[in-house]
Amino acid sequence: MFVVAAGRGERLGAALPKAFVALRGEPLVSHAVRRLRASGVFDELVVAAPAEEVDRCVELFAAARVVPGGSTRQESVRNALAAIPSAVEVVLVHDAARPLVSAEVVRRVHDAARRHGAAMAAIPVTDTLKAVASDGTITATAHRESLWMAQTPQGFHTELLRQAHDAAARDGVEATDDAALVERLGHPVRVVEGSRTNLKITVPEDLAIAEALLAGGLIGD
Ligand code: CTP
Ligand code: MG
Fold first, then answer.
1. 93-113 pLDDT, tens per residue?
2. Burial profile 183-197: b = 16 or more Cβ within 10 angstroms, e = fewer
3. 121 lines ligand 1 (CB under 6 A)
C-alpha cells in the first residue's frame, strides 16, 4: 500500500502541508493510514512524505517505509514504487487527502485489482457538467450518465503500475492519477463503487464537511 502525502496543499492554504493538517486533533495522513490498515488487505506500507516531514512520519508510522515525495504526485508514487519489495504482487495507491476512506472500499478495490490487474474507486457524477470557454460561455454539455468521479484507492498489479510509470516518464506524460497512466498503455481499468464520504480534502470547506461527517456519526471506524 502506498499513501501519497507529499503535496503542499496550496488550495487548502494551511501553514502545514495538507496531509499534516489536523482533523479532530489527528493529521489527515494518520486518519487515512489507520483506516487503510483496518481493511486488513496489506502488510507493506510506503508513505511518501514532504522532505521536512519524513522524520515525523517515521515516528508516526513505525512499521512503514517512509520516502521523500517528489515535486508532483506522479513523482511521489514513483518514489514509493522504488521502495516496495518486489514480492508484493498487488499495490494500492491512496491519497492522504482522503482521510475518511472505508475498509469496505479498500477491500473492493483490492479484490478487483487482484482479479483484473487495475481497478479504482469512483462515484457517479450527480451534477450536470459544462465545458466553458475563457469568455465565460458554455461550449458543451457533457452526458452525465457515463461520467464518474475518480477516487483513491486505486489498485494495480505492481508490475503493471511500474510499466505505466516507466512509460509515462519516457514519454514525458504527467497525470493526476495512476489509472490514467495505465489507461494509456491500453490496459482496462475496472471501476468499483467508491463512497461519497471518501471525500478529498482540497479547500477549507472540505475540512468542515469532514468534521461534520465525523460529528454526525456518519463515518464508521
Ligand atoms: N501529493 C504528493 N506529492 C506531490 C503532490 C501531491 O504526494 N508532489 C499527494 C497529496 O499529498 C495528496 C494527493 O497527492 O494526498 C492528492 O493531491 P492534491 O489533493 O492535489 O494535494 P496537494 O497537491 O497537497 O494540494 P494542492 O494541489 O492544493 O497543492
Ligand atoms: Mg496537488
1. 999 999 999 999 999 999 999
2. eeeebebbbbebbeb
3. no
